[in-house]
Amino acid sequence: MRKFAIPKNPFLLFLPFLVFFIVLALILPTHGNASDENRYLMFAENLSHGFYSPPAPGVDLGTGPGYPFIIFPLVALSLPLVCITVLNAILYYLSVVLLFKALEQIVSFKTALAFSLFWAFYYNSYENMPMILSETFASFLICFLIFTLAKAFNSNSQRKTKIYIFLSGLTIGYIVLTKVIFGYVLLVMFIASILLWVINRRSGNYRKGLVILSIAFITTVPYLIYTYHLTSKIFYWSTFGGNNLYWMSSPYDEEYGSWIKYPMNSQTKDNYIQGGDSLIGLYHQKDFVEASKYRGVEQDEALKRIAIENIKSHPGKFIQNCACNIGRLLFNYPYSYTAQKPITLLRFPMTGIIAVLMLFCAIPTFKNWRKLPYTIRFLLFFVFLYLGGSIFGSAETRMFTIAVPALLFWIAFIITKTIKVNLNFKNEIVQ
Length: 431
Prior knowledge:
Elements: H1 10-13, H2 15-27, H3 37-48, H4 66-76, H5 82-103, H6 109-120, H7 135-154, H8 158-178, H9 181-199, H10 204-231, H11 241-248, H12 266-269, H13 276-291, H14 296-313, H15 315-331, H16 347-367, H17 374-390, H18 397-401, H19 404-418
Helix pairs in contact: 2-5, 3-4, 5-6, 5-7, 6-19, 7-8, 7-17, 7-19, 8-9, 8-10, 9-10, 9-17, 11-14, 13-14, 14-15, 16-19, 17-19
């Protein structure tokens, strides 16, 4: 009897997941009004009419244009919303394939398969797939970046190396346009790469890294020119930063730095435990009366001023809120005024495994830093700058899922180099 042969082609190997993801998108239809869905649909609708944000004073740059640009053809054609979520399903399937193809370049087939399956089964990210949110698309971009970086820093063909360097830079730029927090990551890495290249101009990796980040920066320039035209501010990414920082700076014991919908309405009250809505009004009415005097960029600046005053007055509480934000990034807990739900327990197994492996891999990573492939070093800076920056703005676990493929790529390499597992007992007789 012939043994079952595992397909070597990753597109065939992971094809059952494509079917599963599409079914998931179909049986959990979206109505386009949960979480940030209406915001992405609004921007896609704006693009279909030839603009992105309203002009001053009502400038709205609540999210980057990356994901709205992808879905705006579907919105412009007035196709059912399920077409967008099916697109998410296809992108998640492709992210699994790309992660596998990247892993194959640094680890064995079996290891690449195991870690790719972990990402395919990473059910914490499934909740984003049937929704019109940018996280699934951002995860796809991260996986594509991992693949292109691995090729850019390891390819023996000079012609192909140039192609993958260009694709890596373009991908980073589009990640920035999709999740604008990466704009600050790009700025830090760009400056650091210039310094590293100046110190050691003979390093081919430093030169490649600088070229990649330069291409990424150039990719974002048209959007930065657009935001400068709207706001007269250089390197301005979003009008939502002040709102996030405001809630993170909350000095009240009952609040943990999580974003709260405000002003309150009848729908908002259902999201909080009894009495929470009245406390929100008591604590924040004055601040939002002040902020409501402004619109767009000016309102964003007003909330930032209030937040900075809160941080100066209550630095200890801000640190506590940052610690809570780590919990929300990993496990979506704790939230202000929100009742505990058993479903939170489901987030612990998968993310808990990653968190433990991250702690284990930290030691050999630091100890063998210069021996690591430059792809991994580049990715670690990219991902941990992003995660570190996310701690200072109100975050959710869907933001952590974006980084999971890069973390798995790193963990797979370190485990391969450090751990040897033997499932067979030794021959000693146990009495």
